[in-house]
Amino acid sequence: MVAHAQTVLARARLGNNTEDIETIRSGLYAGQIAIMDGYDVLGLPAMGHGHGGVHKLFDISRLVGLTGGPRGIAYAESERSFVFDDINIPNVLWFTDEVGTPKSPRLVTRLGDDPVAVEALNYIPRGSAFYPDRLAQVTFTTFFTETIDIMRLDGTVEAQIIPDDEIQAHGFGGFSFVGPNRLLIGTYDKLLYETDLSGHVVAGPIAVEGRPDSLEGVGSTVDGRIMAASYTEGKLRYFDHNLNRLPGADQDFKIGIGLSRPLGPGFDSDTGELLFKDEISSFPDILLFSVPQSLGSKTLVKNLADDGYDFSRLRPGMAYLPDEHRIAVPARNPGAMLLYDNAGVLEDNVDLSAFPTSPLVCDYLPSFAQFAIMFNGFAHFGQVSFVTRTGALVRTIDLRPLGVFFCSFAAFDPSDPSGGRLLVIDPFNDAIVVDLDGALLYRFEYRGPLNIPFGSFLVTSITSGPYAGAFATVQGDNSEVVIFTLP
Q1: Which has the closest alpha carbon to 486: 6, 8, 11?
Q2: What is the pLDDT of residues 42-60, one digit of tens each?
């Protein structure tokens, strides 16, 4: 059975996802900095300063074939076209006109082995003595050495630059040609380097202040100033040509409440607030936040690393136990369900170490006092295991015959004859609703109606407050929460 007409009640981007920046020297947006942030291409005046100049140029939701938010953006001035790439499809470039209307994608022909992933893009201007009117792209080889491929606009790679080992040790996602004989590189631990045209370090590292996240966007203005933007901060920082800071020229483009790629959501029925984990802003720590249904603020509940659980030990999902007034956070090494009170005090621990792998996605069924869990690993994806409050397996339902594999779910409607229903969200396929025996009740296409072009992962039911009876899900690459009702 196919259902239709789900309704969006609210949506908001909670934070930035800045992947790349590009200086536009000609055309419709001449004199602006294009910023690839989530699914949006933002514009800032290159010579501006302070907050208020940011505006949306267009979004990339019409680009067919992308698997998520692009990792690179370039503006090919000879064609008056924007160019994008996809980390999961390294040998394709996507083109649009100046207002985001898709053009035909182009295949990339490499010099050697195909990369396993790609990152930043940059256009080398027509007047350059170094490969004019070309694209440069950061790539990852099978041995996780990063290279910079120089290619024609038709996708034919003509040269490859391998930066020094000093830079490789940090890893880098930000790159730009800053001419006439310099390359600019931003590392994953927020260092700024300049190299010669062969990739040898000539300046840096310069440690960029602020949150300890990745320096994804780097570039230069027409007057020679250097710019850098990290993944989460929503701030364009300026330097002179010698890499001395120019803080008075900085520009803000902060989005939302400062939660980038939030994990969750869960829902606290006692406070009526959504729960999210932030694994980016204080990496490797993970912070637990509560967010009201207005999506306009956040409150720190707990730094989970204070209890010895950081990025290496925590899993994406989350649940709430209304009968115990506790937040459930899945963990690994060993597998467990950590139980926190609403003040962030770790009160209990459900031992799941007897299971062959750790819990990945979870919810809680108060009428049964059981957890619903999808365990990590290929052999367990698409299966929901019901586990008692003390950690004993009750039974497992297999959703793979329904076309579900990598999924998340939210329990609701305990009045169903089976004891409840599950809304199952698959980022690659339709959503489905099943009963607790795994019987399909109906399925629906959700990405178009909810304007979630690349799907979502993790969902929760809202059981109190203004949106009681609705659901919330998150688009990670766009840090966007969507609150919606079922068909």
Answers
A1: 6
A2: 999 987 654 458 999 999 9
